[in-house]
Please model this.
Amino acid sequence: MTPEQIALVQQSFSKVAPISEAASVLFYDRLFEVAPSVRAMFPEDMTEQRKKLMGVLAAVVSGLSNLDSILPAASALARRHIAYGAKAEHYPVVGATLLWTLEKGLGESWTPELATAWRDAYGVLSDYMISEAYGAQPQAAE
Model:
């Protein structure tokens, strides 16, 4: 990620933080709509889970300019997700749901450049987490 992309992600997240409760509800509602099979991995009462999501996002976003500071926590999180039943193929669905949620939440502030910055940020983190949880994944042919 470029420093400009990091700044875009961080600036946009500062607009999401005040609406974090609504954003997290929107995220999980959408996730369970597009991937109903993952619902069983989550508690019935999603209150704490929604708070955890926003806390993790805040930590990741603030740590983007120093990835080494967040990678140990990302590794531990990836390994915990295995116990919940998460699989590597869930990561793209979660990423698409995150981007959809950000687009809805940010409205007119959502630009193609911002979408690319968030996609890249999620890609860096999810690729790392998949590698940590499941071993190195083969790169797709380009």
In short: The chain has a mean pLDDT of 92.
